[in-house]
Structures are given as C-alpha cells and as structure tokens.
Amino acid sequence: MLPPSTRRSLPMALLRAREVIMAHFRPMLARHDITEQQWRVLRVLAESGPLEATELANRASILPPSLTRIIKAMEEREFISRNKVKDDGRRALLAISPSGVALIEELSPERAAIYEAIEKRYGAVEHERLLDMLESLIQSESAEG
Amino acid sequence: MLPPSTRRSLPMALLRAREVIMAHFRPMLARHDITEQQWRVLRVLAESGPLEATELANRASILPPSLTRIIKAMEEREFISRNKVKDDGRRALLAISPSGVALIEELSPERAAIYEAIEKRYGAVEHERLLDMLESLIQSESAEG
DNA sequence: AAGATGTAATTCACATGTTAACTACAAGAT
DNA sequence: ATCTTGTAGTTAACATGTGAATTACATCTT
Q1: Structural domain of residue A77, as residue ranges?
Q2: Is nucleic acid strand D under 7 Å from A30's C-beta?
Q3: Most buried in the list A78, A84, A103, A138, measured by CB within 10 Å?
Q4: Residue range B50-72, pLDDT digits in tens
C-alpha cells in the first residue's frame, strides 16, 4: 500500500479542517483577549463544575504543562479559582468564577450563531454524521486499540 | 439553538481525532529526531518538487513565522536546500536534499504500516468516507464560504 | 526618477505543544 | 517506622502557533 499523499492524509485533513473551523471563532476570542485554550478551560469548568487539574486537562485536551500555565494566567485574571483538597496536599479543585461565567454568557449567543452558520453551510445532517465518525475514530484509535 | 457541549463540538472532536492518530506516528518521528512539522515539510517537498516558502507554508499548513524557523533548522541539518530566485530578490526555492529523500524512503515502510493498521481498525470504507467529509468541510468553510 | 502601494519573508513577543526531569505528597510493603 | 512505589502537579528546555510589526524587494503611478 502506498502511503497517502499529503493531500489525502488523515492528520493533514484533520488539521486543515480544524483550522477552517477555528478561523470563524478566533475574531470573537481575540475581541475578549482570551485564547482558544483558555476558552476551552472555561467551558469545561462551566459544564462540569469544579474539577481537579488532571481531569480538567483530559476534558479540555490540554497537556499538564500547558494547563499549569493557563491556570496561572486565568487565576490572575480571576476567571477561575483554586481550592486545595483537604486530606490530599497534591490536589486542588479548579472552579470557574462569577466573571468566568459572565464571559461565557456574554459570548454564548455569538458562539451559537457561528455554529449555526457552519451547520447551514456544511449541512446539519453531514455535521452530525461527521461528529459520529470522529467519535468512532477516536474510540477505535484511543488507548490499547 | 444551544451551543454544543464540549463533548460534541467540531473543534474538540477534530483536535482529539488528530491526537489519537498522531500518537501512532510520534514514536517513529522521535526515533529520527524530527518533528511532525519538519516531517510535513519534507513530504510536501518530496511530492511537489522545489517550492517557494509561501506555497510550501500553504501546502504543509504551517504559518510563515514557524516555517522560517523550521527551514533554518532543516537547512542546518542539510535536509533541505534553498536557492534564490533570480529576478526577484525576495523569493527563494526550497528543495529537499538527498539526505531528505533518504529519510523519507527510510520511513516510508513504517509509515505505510501505521496507516494500514489505522485503516484496518477504523475500516477502509469509513476512512475514505471520513476523508471525503473532511475535504467537503474544508471546501465549504474555507475562504469566502 | 521619485513616491506610493503591494508582496515575500523575517523578526518580535507571547502562548501553547511536547517530552523529560523533578517536587511534593500519598499509600502500600516489609 | 522506614522504604518503596505510585500519583498530582510543576518546572525546564525547546519547537511551534499566533498576530503584529518590520525589512527587503517589486511594481505601479505620475
């Protein structure tokens, strides 16, 4: 079997797809001076409630060293707070702050509109199907495989 | 319409999918001390022949500032060469060197085997279909949309 | 020919990705 | 009780991502 050309390789296709999608969201994030990763952290915490760093890193798909830096920056801007877990000096619970919630709520309408526009252009059925196929790929390739 | 949960958003799904796929290739790249991006540059040049920086950046999905650094590193390791374009002092043609070609050839079998394994686990038909859907998404979202 | 405009590439500054090493703490084994 | 092993989180070092500013060169205009 020939290796795929760069024009038809899964890693490249996934990378490009992500780029064209994120291009729609970047202006919104830039206007509020937060990065894509900080936005992911906020949304995960808003959805899931307080989490420990490891679990947050997993859910937001951010590596631990990056999360350490992101947490630090977001604490300084008071978007999140941290509380030590008693009985275990290593862990800490990270929680979204009221300003963090306010930011989420402020951006939600625009965020929904961007998603709608993408669905409209690409097709709602195809969109759902693509999500299913990606989930399936992630399943088949993650862990022991 | 509600904004999607982080568990079912296109950007997150694309990111995770790429991660699980790249996890299979990273050990190979690490053994040869090249980065994922350097590997993309090599493959694009091997496939397309000599290119100018802007075109190479587009085809490899690498931003110009990153490409500048990558080119510098790869020139020092003599994987690629650069030749100024006469009649335009700004441009230069970047070309893969014999050692670059040798590296590609050395890695090709393992690369093909990894792709085959992915196809086998995920399904060849699904794999092709996913590539089609990603291409279609890229089409529908890129540029003017 | 001089100035205005446009383009290719680089540089800068800062954030994140990535791997390895390290610290701090916890829990189990002897 | 000490020692080992394991786990959570951080730090370090380097590469890349990202947007803005800058440099170098071309081209167009007048």
Answers
A1: 17-141
A2: yes
A3: A103
A4: 999 999 999 999 999 999 999 99
C-alpha distances in Å from residue A40, one per residue of A37, A70, B96:
5, 11, 38
**Contact flag, residue B87 CB and nucleic strand D, below 7 A:** yes
Question: Are the Cβ atoms of B3 and A47 closer than 8 angstroms?
Answer: no
Find the nucleotide nearest B64 (Cα to C1′).
C9
Find the CATH number of the domain harbouring B42.
1.10.10.10
Residue A137 contacts residue B20 (beta carbons within 8 Å):
yes
Domain count for chain A: 1
CA of B62 to C1' of D17 (A): 9
Helices (H), chain B: 10-31, 36-48, 53-60, 64-76, 98-122, 124-141
Q: Is A84 helix (H, G, I), strand (E, B) or coil?
A: strand
The pTM of the full predicted model, rounded to 2 decimals, is 0.94
Element of type H or E holding A30: helix A10-31
B86: Cβ under 7 Å from strand D? no
Domain-located, residue A38: yes
Q: Which of A6, A131, A142 sits opposite B10 (nearest CB)?
A: A131
Structural domain contains residue A12? no
Check CB contact under 8 Å for A2 and B122: no
Does some domain include residue B6?
Answer: no
Q: What is the pLDDT of residues B91-128, one digit of tens each?
A: 999 999 999 999 999 999 999 999 999 999 999 999 99
Q: Which residue places its CA closest to the C1' of nucleotide D27?
A: B88
Q: How far is CA A107 from the centre of its chain?
A: 15
- Residue A9 forms part of a structural domain: no
Interatomic CA–C1' length for residue B87 and nucleotide C18, angstroms: 41
